[in-house]
Recover the amino acids of this structure.
């Protein structure tokens, strides 16, 4: 099997970025949109071809093989070096499919959504840059390559969130996203350095070769301990810190809701389907390490972070009014699902159900969440508002958006026979087998998800019609076609037998639907939907009464548990106020002042003694002669003795 | 005529030719022509170097030795290794870019270009010298025109800033000269019948007693490191940069401050290795403080040039930090960081100069939304900012990663803590860079008068693109450069291990 | 050699002459009198040359010749000094020492 052609998948968007970026002023909007879509169309085809070839023929003795094509990019030491290349294995191929699908759909969609915008070509250039970085990330052969592309997706996210750069809120959201993830990446980088130092390699294949019991690099070092934990465990926790930053897990989630300031297609692409799952992908990529080092201590942390974030975000999503922010918190909650699924997973065979479920959910979630965002974009495009209060009764005007949105909402709520049902069920089954606490919280989250999703759905498409500036209309074909495709995927995606393709140990197994658990989950979901129906189908004051009843709790939730304020306090008051300002003061009044002080002392001293240089030759002569006399006396005295 | 001496002779000829030039147009053409020749020669030097290196294993190649002052054994002794070569190329690029940026200098243009080129002569001479005394002479030649350039063509409290800068650098020179004479008078230690010498390669063969090394290392180190903005001797840099004209800031931060790191590497650590090892912890702490402190200082500044000056303190602190790690990877990173910082900071100063030239303010809070009005400058500003905070694909990333990976090879707690401290600067850097870029380029237009600012002219674009190209080349294709530098680092590192 | 007068008396005389000159040089404000004081100092040394030559080394002539040198130099020096003083007078309309501070500091 030769997969070396996959190197084209990242290179095509790169070429697009360079061309569109350099000639952004010269290329007319009509051409740049087509160029972008066409380029991504090619990668889309290539990715599906790769997936087809790989999953069909990639097995040897029932195990999926790993194919690596790489070149040496830079040497640090004799052992440590960065390679650039592509790594083809079940999860990277699966991610290729996800990224290329969503990216292609978003390109198509943006041609309609961004029509008439000033920076049309610039927008497509940024999208191409993002696609390049994301493909590079998923195909990375080693930890450092992933870090490089990690930073690049971060910066494309920065550029795209700040796309409307004249809007102060967009600019500060972009800055926030970059700085928060950068802070998390600081941990990631230190983790990489630790792993590099102890194991002497960053290559995924070497790092993940932990199941061979003896002679594996990582396990040899796992016994070196630091503060009670193995250094490798520390490194993995730090690496996960980076992952948590990108995937908006607690406590690094604060950038994600603000990131919704970007254009909606960007939210669909980056902040729902692809970049934000990078953290999940990272843990999955290093899964054998996480699992085998110190009996998966780091993995337990991963599981709890995922579970808590998932619950936390779902609660906040209940009270938000900006539809994109609801979707953002929903994304965070669903990513929490994926992370916790990885956290509760084991490695071999059917025990690796959680790993498979996580990847499965990543896949289906990408489809339906991107669809939800595109639907929201379509609504925003029609009525020029993000707020739920300004919406209602839109089903008549926007039938396609309505239907596709409904499909996605049903899918995310875990209603049977939609894609989300299957993947969520696997996650719940995995949690049920390993950690009861997490299982219960996850089921609860499933109910909350159904509730807030249908709160949105009823709020947007049913309820009382609001006064609109002009009659809302259905979006153009360029926007609806991608939505229809994604709606199809949001149903069909669930019928893929993921356990045959994507597993922790690369060996297919048979996963069966656990009817008992599935029934519980879907019942909870349906209860959520019914509650939402009661609350929001018709205009009534039930929801106000409820929020009054919960008083303080509602207020806390509405304010996202004051996380933003805490961060603001820490950065503004502590870092700026207590560290940076004194540092600047110290610099000016101590360091610089002492340097100036040396100058001043010299100057005032010279001021004092400059009277000696009176300029009167008689004084000089006086000095000369009296000096001569003194010397004469001294010499004479010495001569006598 | 040998290939290296030309690097000193061409600028001198240019200066003489400038003496006959009249008016702005003639002067800038003459200056540009001379420096383009210099740039061509420096690019040629890379290839000549690689060709010669393949057959020549000496530490320094293209060596030439002319006795200058017999009595004290002072020679005009020149030669290069890969590190000098890349520094020479950097200088040539920045000088040419600086001439483009000062294309429209209206006040005493002839004298301006003469001072600028005299300065660059000193820098070129410094990089090719192998004789401590000659090196010191060139160093002084580089520092003194700075006084005139800031004092005459500067802005704001220029006399004061020029005075402060020159006095602090002169003070450093005084300290340095003590160190150099200390080395000189011990340069025949352990060699029977050897004469005292200033020749670096000869001194390296002597066994200077460890007590002497401990005594003189701090003199040499501080003498050079003041120029490299070592905390707490960095305060000349912000005010000096703030007052300096654009091209001078570019040259100063881009090249002159690199003399510090280069001198530390070439003289202090090579000639006094035992002293270097004994003093490393102390200076390492100072350098780490500089890294974090400079970054924190940059957060709070209002003046664009001050932000950049403090950022330079942070980034050059990283160079000294890496040098003190005594490790091949870190040293490689230090050299690349010198290059990268030189190019990027020159770009920043050029951009700040362009913004200032148009809006007549450098106050961050008065600027805003310039991207819409000045798309080219805005885009380059954003790119430079991203490159500065270490985005992959640009030179800064390569440099920082080499430094961090190299530093992390020390497994004791002391080095680990300092390394992690230094790594944390990447976050703070992101904060001040994004704050600056976000404030002045993005957001709503702060002042309606700015709506009609003139767009970037061709010479500004040429200047910026010239600097951007090497940044991208180093960032995307680092391997050749790294290998070239690493070969030359080896003999220097061996002295310390 | 003068009968009845020893070298000591003459040296005392020349010393007094010298110190009068020095005193005048230090204290006079007028440049002309300063110049005159210098003449006194020079004359004192010229006298010393002649006297020491005559009393101690009567067979040699160098001392006497040197005193002629001194007289010639004093003349040249006076000419130069007067020229400077005249120019100075043109500039500041004064020959007082305290008024000649243009180049101070």
């Amino acid at each position: 099997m030769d997969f070396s052609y996959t190197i084209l998948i990242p290179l095509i968007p790169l070429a697009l970025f360079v061309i569109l970026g350099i000639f952004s002023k010269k290329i007319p909007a009509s051409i740049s949109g087509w160029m972008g879509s066409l380029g991504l169309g090619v990668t889309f085809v290539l990715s599906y071809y790769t997936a087809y070839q790989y999953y069909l023929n990639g097995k040897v003795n029932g195990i999926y093989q790993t194919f690596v094509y790489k070149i040496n990019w830079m040497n640090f030491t004799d052992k440590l070096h960065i390679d650039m290349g592509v790594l083809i294995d079940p999860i990277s191929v699966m991610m290729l499919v996800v990224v290329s699908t969503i990216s292609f759909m978003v390109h198509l969609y943006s041609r309609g959504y961004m029509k008439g915008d000033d920076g049309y070509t610039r927008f497509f250039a940024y999208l191409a840059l993002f696609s390049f970085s994301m493909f590079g990330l998923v195909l990375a052969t080693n930890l450092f390559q992933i870090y490089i592309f990690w930073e690049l997706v971060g910066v494309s996210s920065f550029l795209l969130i700040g796309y409307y750069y004249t809007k102060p809120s967009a600019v500060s959201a972009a800055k926030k996203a970059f700085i928060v993830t950068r802070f998390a990446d600081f941990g990631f980088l230190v983790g990489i350095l630790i792993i590099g130092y102890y194991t002497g390699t960053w290559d995924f294949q070497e790092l993940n070769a932990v199941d061979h019991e003896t002679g594996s690099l990582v396990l040899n070092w796992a016994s070196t301990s630091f503060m009670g934990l193995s250094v490798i465990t520390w490194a993995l926790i730090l690496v996960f810190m980076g992952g948590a930053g990108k995937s908006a897990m607690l406590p690094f989630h604060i950038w994600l809701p603000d990131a919704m300031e970007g254009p909606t297609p960007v939210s669909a692409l980056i902040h729902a389907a692809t970049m934000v799952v990078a953290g999940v992908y990272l843990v999955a990529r290093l899964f054998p390490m996480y699992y085998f080092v110190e009996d998966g201590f780091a993995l337990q942390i991963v599981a709890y972070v995922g579970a808590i974030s998932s619950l936390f975000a779902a609660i906040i999503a209940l009270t938000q009014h900006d539809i994109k922010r609801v979707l953002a918190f929903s994304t965070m909650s669903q990513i929490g699902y994926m992370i916790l699924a990885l956290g509760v997973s084991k490695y071999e065979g059917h025990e690796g159900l959680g790993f498979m479920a996580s990847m499965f959910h990543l896949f289906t979630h990408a489809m339906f969440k991107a669809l939800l965002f595109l639907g929201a974009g379509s609504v925003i495009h029609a009525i020029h508002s993000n707020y739920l209060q300004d919406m209602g009764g839109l089903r008549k005007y926007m039938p396609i958006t309505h239907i596709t949105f409904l499909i996605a909402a049903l899918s995310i709520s875990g209603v049977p026979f939609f894609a989300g049902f299957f993947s969520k069920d696997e996650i719940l089954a995995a949690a049920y087998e390993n950690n009861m606490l997490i299982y219960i919280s996850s089921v609860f989250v499933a109910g909350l998800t159904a509730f807030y999703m249908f709160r949105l759905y009823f709020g947007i498409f049913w309820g009382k019609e609001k006064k609109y500036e002009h009659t809302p209309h259905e979006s153009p074909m360029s926007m609806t076609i991608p939505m229809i495709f994604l709606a199809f995927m949001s149903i069909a995606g669930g019928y893929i037998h993921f356990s045959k393709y994507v597993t922790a140990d690369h060996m297919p197994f048979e996963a069966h639907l656990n009817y008992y658990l599935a029934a519980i989950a879907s019942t909870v979901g349906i209860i959520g939907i019914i509650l939402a129906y009661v609350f929001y189908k018709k205009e009534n004051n039930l929801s106000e009464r409820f929020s009054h009843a919960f008083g303080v709790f509602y207020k806390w939730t509405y304010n996202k548990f004051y996380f933003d304020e805490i961060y603001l306090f820490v950065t503004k008051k502590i870092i700026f106020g207590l560290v940076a300002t004194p540092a600047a003061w110290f610099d000016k009044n101590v360091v610089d002042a002492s340097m100036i002080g040396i100058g001043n002392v010299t100057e005032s001293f010279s001021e004092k003694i400059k009277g000696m240089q009176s300029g009167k030759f008689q004084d000089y002569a006086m000095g000369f002669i009296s000096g001569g006399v003194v010397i004469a006396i001294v010499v004479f005295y010495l001569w006598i003795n | 005529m040998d290939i290296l001496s030309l690097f000193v002779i061409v600028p001198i000829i240019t200066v003489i030719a400038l003496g006959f030039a009249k008016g702005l147009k003639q002067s800038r053409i003459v200056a540009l022509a001379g420096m383009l020749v210099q740039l061509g020669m420096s690019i040629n030097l890379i290839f000549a170097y690689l060709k010669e290196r393949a057959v020549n294993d000496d530490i320094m190649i293209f060596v030439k030795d002319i006795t200058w002052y017999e009595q004290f054994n002072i020679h005009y002794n020149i030669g290069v290794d890969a590190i000098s070569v890349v520094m020479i190329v950097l200088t040539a690029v920045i000088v040419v870019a600086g001439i483009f940026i000062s294309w429209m200098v209206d006040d005493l243009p002839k004298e301006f270009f003469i001072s600028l080129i005299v300065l660059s002569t000193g820098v070129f001479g410094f990089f090719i010298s192998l004789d401590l005394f000659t090196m010191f002479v060139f160093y002084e030649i580089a520092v003194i025109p700075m006084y005139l350039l800031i004092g005459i063509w500067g802005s704001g409290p220029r006399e004061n800033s020029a005075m402060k800068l020159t006095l602090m650098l002169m003070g450093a020179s005084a300290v340095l000269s003590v160190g150099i004479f200390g080395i000189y008078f011990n340069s025949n230690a352990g060699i029977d019948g050897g004469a005292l010498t200033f020749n670096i390669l000869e001194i390296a063969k002597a066994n200077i007693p460890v007590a002497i090394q401990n005594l003189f290392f701090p003199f040499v180190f501080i003498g050079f490191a003041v120029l490299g903005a070592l905390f707490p001797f960095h305060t000349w840099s912000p005010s000096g940069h703030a007052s300096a004209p654009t091209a001078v800031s570019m040259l100063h931060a881009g090249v002159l401050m690199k003399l510090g790191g280069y001198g530390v590497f070439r003289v202090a650590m090579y000639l006094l290795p035992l002293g270097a090892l004994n003093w490393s912890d102390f200076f390492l702490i100072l350098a780490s403080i500089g890294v974090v402190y400079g970054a924190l200082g940059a957060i709070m500044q209002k003046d664009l040039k001050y932000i950049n000056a403090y950022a330079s303190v942070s980034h050059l602190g990283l160079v000294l930090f890496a040098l003190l790690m005594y490790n091949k990877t870190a040293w490689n990173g230090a050299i690349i960081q010198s290059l990268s910082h030189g190019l990027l900071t020159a770009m920043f100063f050029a951009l700040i100069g362009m913004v200032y030239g148009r809006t007549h303010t450098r106050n961050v809070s008065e600027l805003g939304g310039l991207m819409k009005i000045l798309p080219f400058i805005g885009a380059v500003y954003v790119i430079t900012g991203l490159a500065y905070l270490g985005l992959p694909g640009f030179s800064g990333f390569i440099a920082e990663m080499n430094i961090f990976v190299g530093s992390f090879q020390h497994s004791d707690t002391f080095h680990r803590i300092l390394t992690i401290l230094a790594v944390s600067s990447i976050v703070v850097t992101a904060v001040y860079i994004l704050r600056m870029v976000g404030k002045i380029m993005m957001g709503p237009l702060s002042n309606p008068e700015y709506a009609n600012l003139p767009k970037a002219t061709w010479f500004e674009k040429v200047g910026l693109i010239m600097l951007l190209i090497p940044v991208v080349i180093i960032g995307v294709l680092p391997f050749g450069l790294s290998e070239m530098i690493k070969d030359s680092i080896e003999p220097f590192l061996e002295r310390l291990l | 050699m003068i009968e009845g007068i020893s070298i000591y008396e003459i040296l005392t005389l020349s010393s007094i002459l010298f110190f009068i000159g020095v005193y005048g040089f230090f204290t006079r404000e007028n440049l002309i009198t300063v110049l005159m004081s210098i003449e006194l100092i020079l004359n004192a040394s010229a006298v010393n040359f002649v006297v020491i030559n005559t009393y101690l080394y009567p067979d040699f002539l160098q001392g006497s010749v040197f005193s002629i040198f001194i007289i010639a130099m004093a003349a040249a020096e006076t000419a130069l000094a007067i020229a400077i003083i005249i120019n100075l007078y043109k500039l500041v309309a004064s020959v007082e020492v305290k008024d000649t501070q243009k180049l101070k500091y």
